[in-house]
Please model this.
Amino acid sequence: MGLRREPTARQVRLAVELRRLREAAGLTGREAAALLGVSSTQINQIEYGHSGVSEKRLRSLAAHYSCSDEELVDALVAMATDRTRGWWEEYRGLLPASFLDIAELEHHATYRRDVESLNIPGLLQTEEYAHAVFAYRVPELPQADTELRVQHRMRRRSIIEDPAPIPYEAVIHEAALRIRVGDRAAARAQLTRVLEISEADHVTVRVIPFDLDDFAGAWSTMMYAGGSVPQLDTVVRDAPHGAAFVDSEAQLGSFRTLFRKVEAASLGPERSRDFIHQLAKEL
Model:
C-alpha cells in the first residue's frame, strides 16, 4: 500500500491517538518499532497518518502499550479498518479538504452540539440562507463554487434528517436569529425551518436572549461532535486557514464545561420555541 500524500482528518486522528498511547506507555518510536518487528520509519508513517495500520498490528501495539481500555481499542480498530466512501467523496478536488473532513466527522458522530452567536448553525440553515452566507465571502467565490458549497451544506443535514438521525443540540443567541442574512422573506423562512426541526424528538434548540443578565459567553461558538467513545470526541472551530479540529482531552474537557455553562444560561426548549415563533411573527 502506498503512502498517503494528504491523509484525511479522520486518518490523522487515528494516528494521533496511537502516538498518544505510545507516549503514555513511555516508549520511543524506535522501541515501539522493535516490539512490533518493523522499522522506526514505519511507526513514524503510521503515527502521522501517512500509512494505514491493520487490525492485528493495531491490537498488537495497544497490547505493547498496556492499553486496557477495550472500548477505545475497538473504536480505533473501527477507524483503522473503515473503508467508507461517503457522499462527500464526490466533492474531493472540488471543495477544500476541510469540507470533506467535517462531513466525514459528522457521518461517524454519535451526537452533535452547536453553539452559535452570529449565524444560524449550518445543520439548521435553509438553502437560501447558506447561499447568502457563501456569496458574502471575500474574496468572492465564482458562482459555481458557491453552489457547490451550498449543495454540500444541504447534504450535511442528512445526519439529523435521515430515518436514523443522531441526537442534536443547538444553543443559538438571539443575535443570530435576528440578523437578516437574506431579505425579510428569507429570514422568516429560516426561522420557520428552525422551528420545524426543533419539534423532532432528537433535536433540542435553545435560545439565549439579549436581555439575559450576567452572560459573557457570546464568544463561545463551537461545533462539538461526539465520538464512539468520549476520547474520540472532536470540536471544530473556525480558523484563518479553514476548519481547525480540536481533540486533546484537556481542550475537550474545557469545551464540555463551556457547553454546559451556555446551555444552563439559555431558555428551555419550549420557551425557546415560543421565542423564535414570536420573532417570526414580527417579520
Observations:
- The CA atoms of residues 21 and 65 lie 6 Å apart.
- The radius of gyration is 21 Å.
- The first helix runs from residue 9 to 24.
